[in-house]
Write a structure and sequence with these properties.
The complex is a heterodimer.
Chain A lengths: L1 H8 L3 E4 L10 H6 L1 H15 L8 H21 L9 H28 L1 H6 L6 H27 L11 H25 L2 H15 L15 H4 L3 H14 L7 H25 L2 H4 L1
Helix pairs in contact in A: 3-7, 4-5, 4-7, 5-7, 5-8, 5-9, 5-11, 7-8, 8-9, 8-11, 8-12, 11-12
Chain B lengths: L3 E13 L3 H4 L2 H17 L3 H11 L4 E13 L3 E5 L6 H8 L7 E7 L2 E3 L13 H11 L4 H15 L14 H13 L5 E5 L7 H16 L3 E5 L3 H7 L2 E6 L2 E7 H16 L4 H4 L8 E10 L4 E2 L2 E2 L4 E9 L7 E8 L5 E6 L13 E8 L7 E11 L2 E5 L5 E6 L26
Parallel strand pairs in B: 3-7, 3-8, 5-6, 6-7, 12-19
Antiparallel strand pairs in B: 1-2, 1-4, 8-9, 10-11, 10-13, 13-16, 14-15, 14-17, 17-18, 17-19
The chains are: A mainly alpha, B alpha/beta.
């Protein structure tokens, strides 16, 4: 009882007031709920392939089959240049970050609506929802990545020190997905249209990124515009870090970085504005 | 250190009425979100905020809560009463941080829990064990805390055998038991209970009330929303009466309950009965007024036990083609316990035709209830469909002592109702 008493006295005072600013995000409460973030990711991973026959193999099949199709149609038929790389490696190394990115956006879009019972009944920092949606995809990424290592071994491509940049690039993809996911999840809570628009957005984005073709195919005078897409940097970077082929990171890459930062800040601001009353509208 | 654990200061919450889909577009929302602070800079007047909301769309807004200020001390059990739409649930939602107030602020000291959350965060594919951790984390428990309480939770739910079975294979009873066990072990310093929104059957709600009583006995703070005046009176030391989003009355439970019952009942005797009382049904016929007469047509302010009385209900029809109409009257105690109900169809009286405006008269011979105050509820059923009913009552009656048996004798002990009987010896 004495323990309880002292615990009560040190209990923090929660102040409830309408939010005014753009950036008074409650980092402390986010930190207090870090275990919930962990539990959400753990649950997503645990539940994702429950009651499926082949389970986690789905994490490999999606990018792998796409790679086969791209290699056949874009590679063998359309003869798109691949910087001298075997087509399977060329496509799979791009499809890995892309699949992760696309799935993360899709999951983040639906996450608040999918958790609306929770959102309407309990308090927790809502930011945890899109964050866990984006982070739980990393497990699928890791599974699919192991296949890439096997393929590189098969084609005799040895990774170099550049491989160390891979985590940085992956982190960039996570931040991009998170920045976009913040917008889409909050907007989808208001308008379910977003759920239908997102697959379309992802499809367009795929063609605006160097997945099916190398970035060098884009005409010189449009390159600056092309690199405004953060996924251009991520995907070209992935190929380059893994195989040493393709466009190395240059000044344009830092344009990508700035865009990611901007998207993230705007996304956090928008989400923060919506967060307080999202339980009323979802 | 002060022992105030909840302090609310001018809490207000603005809600939009009607369907948002029809009136706002995606563009509105984005532009409003981003221009809101700029509008605030230019216009600091509180009322301007409302007019801004109103001008940005052609919709109406309502203050679900307006300038609500109060304090709750450590260990108090406070009842929150009021009609539907008075703002009770909104208040709890704000204190639980589910939604934010539009204006004002509140300070809450300690962990807040509510029995609303039962089953929140459960995932059907996960096992009981996994769901205890997941749901516990959603409710704000730390993993270490759940580790510590795990065996206790399992034992409380009587779930030892099935703890590693996915909960989708549980019966609904098991599911609720496990979910409740998790919520009950949250050990909040402040417990918010909204009985109006509570799910589950009567037995489960009883369990919630029991848990609430335990929490209160341990000296923790409870805020309790209910329509059940008996429960409020039993559990709460203090009550707050909300009316149209404002605090109407606050203080000792019994007097606040009295204010509540009298305020809405006295309003009901006015001619605008149509607007003031809570009603359900299709509205094809509606009661507009209620009073009591003796059999000679004199209005009565009090009824004597044993007197012949007439309950007079004025009504209005929206539709003249109504047929097959059954009138029902119920008599209830102030705490909402049902004493009796009488429907015209019990005596095979179903009315084939009623005038557009008229009076329904119900004669009760030798009124059998003991002195006290009673709530009168009424319902009209047209073709087996409820056209109008008053879940909280249409008004009240006062009964005083009377000569029930025609002997001038009045019983010395009190009991709720009187019967006409006779003794004989064989």
């Amino acid at each position: 009882m004495a323990v309880k008493e002292s615990a009560r006295e040190s209990a923090p005072v929660i102040v409830i007031r309408p939010r005014k600013g753009w950036w008074d995000i409650d980092w402390r409460s986010l930190w207090e709920y870090r275990e919930l973030l962990y539990f959400f990711i753990w649950r997503d991973v645990k539940v994702r392939y429950k009651q499926t026959l082949i389970g986690a193999a789905w994490a490999i099949i999606q990018p792998f089959m796409t790679m086969v199709v791209f290699s056949l149609f874009f590679g063998k038929l359309a003869k798109i240049p691949s910087n001298g790389l075997p087509y399977p490696i060329f496509y799979y190394s791009a499809l890995l970050p892309w699949t992760y990115f696309a799935n993360s956006i899709q999951n983040a879009t639906n996450t608040i609506v999918a958790h609306q019972n929770m959102v309407k009944k309990v308090y927790f920092p809502r930011l945890i929802l899109p964050l866990s949606a984006v982070l739980s995809g990393l497990v699928d990424f890791a599974i699919a990545f192991s296949v890439l290592l096997g393929m590189m071994l098969f084609y005799g491509i040895m990774p170099t020190w550049k491989l160390l940049l891979l985590p940085v690039l992956l982190f960039l993809a996570t931040l991009t997905a998170f920045g976009v996911g913040l917008w889409l999840s909050a907007l989808n809570a208001l308008y379910r249209d977003v759920r239908y628009a997102t697959p379309f957005l992802i499809q367009l984005w795929l063609f605006a990124s160097p997945v099916a073709y190398p970035a060098s195919m884009v005409p010189e005078r449009w390159q600056w515009l092309y690199w405004l897409n953060p996924m251009t940097g991520v995907i070209e970077g992935f190929r380059w870090a893994l195989t040493g082929q393709g466009q190395p990171l240059n000044n344009l890459f830092f344009v990508s970085l700035c865009i990611v930062g901007l998207m993230l800040v705007l996304g956090l601001m928008f989400f923060h504005r919506m967060e307080g009353t999202i339980a009323d509208v979802v | 250190m002060s022992d105030v654990v909840i302090r609310a200061e001018r809490l207000s919450k603005l809600y939009r009425i009607g369907q948002r889909e029809k009136f706002t577009t995606l563009r509105d929302v984005i532009s409003r979100t981003f221009t809101a602070p700029f509008r605030r800079w230019f216009k600091n007047n509180q009322n301007e905020i409302v007019s801004n909301y109103q001008s940005s769309t052609s919709n109406n807004y309502i203050w679900a809560l307006k300038d609500v200020s109060f304090e709750v001390k450590q260990g108090e059990v406070v009842g929150i009463i009021g009609r539907n739409g008075a703002g009770k649930s909104t208040l709890l939602k704000i204190l639980a941080r589910i939604t934010e107030p539009t204006e004002g602020y509140a300070e809450v000291r300690g962990r807040v829990g509510s029995l609303l959350e039962v089953g929140t965060g459960f995932h059907p594919e996960l096992t009981g064990r996994e769901n205890i951790y997941l749901s516990g984390a959603v409710l704000g428990m730390k993993k270490r805390e759940i580790d510590r309480k795990f065996d206790e939770i399992v034992a409380f739910a009587e779930m030892e055998k099935f703890i590693d079975t996915p909960v989708k294979y549980y019966s609904s009873g098991m599911y609720v038991r496990l979910a409740f066990a998790v919520a009950a072990h949250l050990d909040p310093e402040i417990l918010l209970v909204d009985e109006v929104l509570a799910v589950g059957d009567a037995a489960f709600q009883k369990k919630c009330l029991g848990k609430m009583g335990d929490v209160a006995k341990e000296g923790r703070t409870v805020l309790f929303v209910s329509h059940n005046m008996a429960a409020i009176e039993n559990l709460c030391s203090r009550a707050i009466l909300l009316h149209n989003g404002r605090i109407f009355s606050e203080g000792e439970t019994r007097s606040v309950i009295r204010t509540y019952l009298q305020s809405f009942l006295s309003e009901t005797s006015s001619s605008s009965l149509l607007d003031v009382i809570e009603r359900e049904g299709t509205g094809d016929i509606q009661f507009t007024d209620f009073h009591v007469e003796d059999i000679y047509g004199n209005k009565l302010s009090v009824i004597q036990s044993g007197q012949d009385v007439v309950f007079v209900f004025k009504f209005k029809c929206k539709n003249e083609q109504l047929r097959n109409i059954d009138f029902g009257v119920g008599i209830y105690t102030l705490t909402g316990e049902r004493l009796t109900i009488f429907h015209s169809q019990y005596k095979n009286q179903v009315f084939e035709k009623v005038p557009k405006e008229g009076e329904a008269r119900c004669i009760i011979k030798r009124f059998p209830f003991a002195p006290g105050r009673y709530i009168i509820k009424i319902s009209i059923i047209v073709n087996n469909v409820v056209a109008d009913s008053t879940p909280l009552g249409i008004g009240y009656i006062d009964v005083v002592e009377g000569d029930f048996w025609g002997t001038g004798k009045v019983p010395k002990v009190s009991f709720p109702f009187l019967i006409d009987a006779e003794w004989s010896i064989m």
